[in-house]
User: Fold this.
Amino acid sequence: MAMRDNANNVSTMIDAIVIGAGVMGSSISLELARSRRKVLCVDAGPGVGSGSTSSSSAVIRFNYSVMDSILTAWEAGHRWKNFASFLGAEDSSGLVEYVETGCLALDVPNDNRPKVLSMWAEIGIEFSELTADEIHERFPQFDKGDFYPPRTVEDPRFADDPKTDINGYWTPEGGFVNDPMLSAQNFMDAARKLGVEVRLNSEVVEIRKDAGAVVGITLADGEQIDAPIVVNAAGPASRHINALAGVVEEMRIKTNPMRQEVHVVPAPPSVTVENTPLVADAGVGVYFRPGLGGTVLIGSTEPECDELQWVDDHRDFNPIPTPEVFEAQVLRTARRIPELGIPSAPVGLADLYDASDDWVPLYDKSSLDGFFMACGTSGNQFKNAPMVGTFITALVDAAAAGQDHDVDPVKVTGELTGREINLATFSRLRERTSGTNSVLG
Ligand SMILES: Cc1cc2nc3c(=O)[nH]c(=O)nc-3n(C[C@H](O)[C@H](O)[C@H](O)COP(=O)(O)OP(=O)(O)OC[C@H]3O[C@@H](n4cnc5c(N)ncnc54)[C@H](O)[C@@H]3O)c2cc1C
Assistant:
């Protein structure tokens, strides 16, 4: 533990500083506080959850390419479902809601369906494999054509009739959280009750070190705050914070900000939250889900025909959705939902993923003693936030007990399945994970 004098000369003991008050930093603050640590969470922005978390589509699904990712999403999904009891709240008023729509994944050639389904069967996740006719019977609002491969709107074959029908698989679980920004605030409210202090409008400009260990941070106004543990939960700024800590070079898997657009269009009468699942439709290059208030929310699955929009500086990107991307994503979705109306001007948002090289996150320590990272969330980790606090706390506890996670990986036992989640899967030192190479993870 360290002493510091803050601007008001109040002496405070801080065990851990969490950089970032997004959904990750809020969950981490809560779990570190539950482990009886005195926690300070600092954020450059004006509000808890006001960073990229506020733009999240907040989709909850369980189809990932590796077992540890599936287990993490499955365990986290049940924490979302029982959020009040997970947070220790007396009731659910003021808390986010988990809207369970089910999830339909449509086939693309050589996808991870066989792997996913065998892992689901092993865990006991309910699913059914659906033929095109069964999909159409269950969801008549969807066209049953196979539109693969995804094309640009300018491609003369964009509107070609499909030659075959699409199959897929379905799980009744999965859905979305109705308000991602509020979810971060819910975590943080619970954390504050355990003594976590939050400082907003406080940008970290330096990670201070001594003798190979972190000793604290410096804020933009020059204030220095000491602590023996610092956690990078800075979302799309993670690369910048890792660079301040001097740990980027050692990372085999790196993170970079990537611009993304999500569009919101009015739902046709045939599409409601009650009858329409969230859909991963990589064959047309989109994911979509029904939204509250009669909308359809549409994001990209990074088809090869689209250029990825890497951003050099997380503080400098266009936050306005563009007509080109809007047209592409909405027209692609209209192939699957023929009744979808196409608004004339873009409605939606643009924000940044903190994309890792292999689209799998980094929940890890570093070679700088006391410096941890929860980053590389790659547009697919909102759902896992309730587990990420547990992961980082397990890593912090292991380091305190002298366990070197790089050599002797930390494992977390899921309370639902009783199965171990090996955090080496999320190590910065891993080889590239072979997956979908997209937000589908
Ligand atoms: C458009 C979009 C759609 C998505 N859809 C989904 C989805 O459907 N399902 C899913 O599971 N995931 C999804 N994700 C991913 C998920 O939302 C993110 O992984 C998650 O919200 C990241 O949370 P975070 O707390 O790491 O980052 P953030 O919410 O960005 O929080 C990081 C915080 O760090 C602060 N910060 C940055 N630099 C500094 C500094 N120097 N000093 C102090 N503070 C700093 C920022 O102000 C910010 O508040 C999506 C993401 C985006 C952008």
